[in-house]
Amino acid sequence: MQDLLRRYGTGLTTLFCLLVAFWILVLVILPNFSMLFESFFPYLPVAELGGPKDVFTLQNYEKILANPIQTSWFGLPITLPIHVSTFVDTVFFSALVTLMTLILAYPLAYFLAKIASPRSIPTLLLLLFIPMWVSEALRAFAWYIILTFNGPLNALLKALGIIDQGIRWQNGVFSSYDAIVIVLTYCYVLFMLFPIYTSITSLDTNQIEAAEDLGSPWWRTHLRVVIPHAKPGIASGCVMVFMLSAGSLLVPTVVGSTKANWFPQTIYAWFNDALDWNTGAAYSMIFLLVSIIFVILAMRVFRVKLSDIAK
Amino acid sequence: MTHDTSAFSRRRFLQGSAVGAGILAAPAIVSSQALAASGTVNFVGWAGYPALAEKVFPAFAAATGIKVNFKELPDQETMFAEGKVALEAGGVDVLEPAIDRWGGWNSNGLLGPWDPAKLAMDNYLPGLADGSAGERSRADGKLMYVPSNWGTEALVANEANAKLSSPPSLGDLFNPENSAVLRPHSTLAAMGRWLDATGKLPRPWMDGYTDMAAMTELWDIALAEAIKAKGNVVQWWSGENEANAGFTANGATIGLNWDSTGYNLRKDGYKYIAPVEGAFAWHQGFVLMKNATNVDEAHEFAKFVSTPEGSAMWAAAFSSNAVGKGSAEFVDPEVAAYYGGTFDDAALAKLWWWPEQSAEFIAKRSEYADKYKAA
Is the ipTM of this complex over 0.90? Predict the structure, then answer.
């Protein structure tokens, strides 16, 4: 604070603080607080607001436990409330997306940070960035076209003689979430790449050479030297990709199969199909809370601190 | 926390946030009032029908000097949400829901009455603003809704590949040999009506729209049957674009879609067919916001869409049917031929108008749609 005052003077510093306060208070805290508040009241016509039915209740939260359905996990039949099942699927497949982006991004980040010649880095980064210039909606729709029954992927495979019948990729080969996982991985891989790239860049190359000189095979060098150093980058990449994937509404809506349901779609349905904003708010709160717990647990398991990620 | 204090603090909170929203929205309120003097109407309507802005609004401006500020939204749920916000923030005068929906909007306190003296009620074709439709347009004797156009939801089928029974039936949607483009809630209604027509329901399907106990009994049956047949669904649709892509990109052979989808695909080898049970029919129109600022302009606007020319243009923009008397001579012959091909007099007589659906019904209906989607 003293530093800020000395550098920018009273006027600018006050402006900065006011802007940050406005951002956090008006754009983040108040809307969430209002949702939290509304989530404890029933959905009523405007005329009955403030009336005898307009009382504090937990019924919106209880709705997530209603409507059990038969489903299966890895072939095991199980009975779960429909929205809990959607929720579990969303968390599981978001974690899968996180893992896929990590597998794709780590070697690439290592290549960019330690192997590629410094002169080619700007070109390579530009190439990676170009897809980001197109909006997420268009990229998701492009994937929808690629994966459709009459789409280019089936046309190509048929022309090459690999398949003779079109495949409904969108409905999934391994699970009904295939298309969502593919497209989310595509959309969010850079959110994994750049934190890892940044953290590997700060690793002294001498350490890698020293490990090699001492006879460490390449995989052990990564396991003992590079990955521990890059852990904050990996953790922040994982948190970002997981939260973005789990919170994505657009991608599941555009490419989702007729069997897939993503939890944000359930929240959207409460708001926009059932017109029940209060239950929608309750579901949003549940989702926010459980996602935060999940991330904190993951950070505990991998022994990463929040301050590491902030760096 | 006692009930009284919680309700009290909730009100306080809402009042507080309304004041806050008012301050934030002040520029919008001020500017919309400033614009009112120069003759504008703020209209929230359907997205995906470019002819509205290209042809109808300029014609309306030329006829009356009133400019239309058009906000396009994809569906009625989003329009309702917009209206709910506008109740606090202002900026919306007229919206365009279906006749079975405005009741729910009205019970949420969104709407104000039209003044029939400022409209021309004689302009409307018989049966659209009078009779039972007229009763359904009123609440407590006040006119809350005036029609803008009407249309149908029926079978869109690939002429070469769809397997149709003779005569074509809603049951063809559930034939495993067809791949289908559906939307969950109307599909469940189609299943219900099909089961009803084939005598497989314990009581008439219509009972479900008036009695919630009958609703759960009937919709449970329809849901179970629809889930059995779900394997042939290749695409869900909620708007025009998805419906179209379901046929062209995903290769569906049959669907339960709006007439506009069938019309747009008429040159790609698809037919629009009225099922033997009768096509679903909807009726769409204008409602006035309770806090509308451009009330006279809004009446002029609704009146324009009841004139022969205005109603024909409005219907042409939606590829649907006009509400005004004398509109036939302004209708594009291609559109007229298209509808003539689907609806002969017998099919017109069988039209199944969507019944009124209460907020409770809609909440329950989306629960069923949800289960169907997740199955």
Answer: no
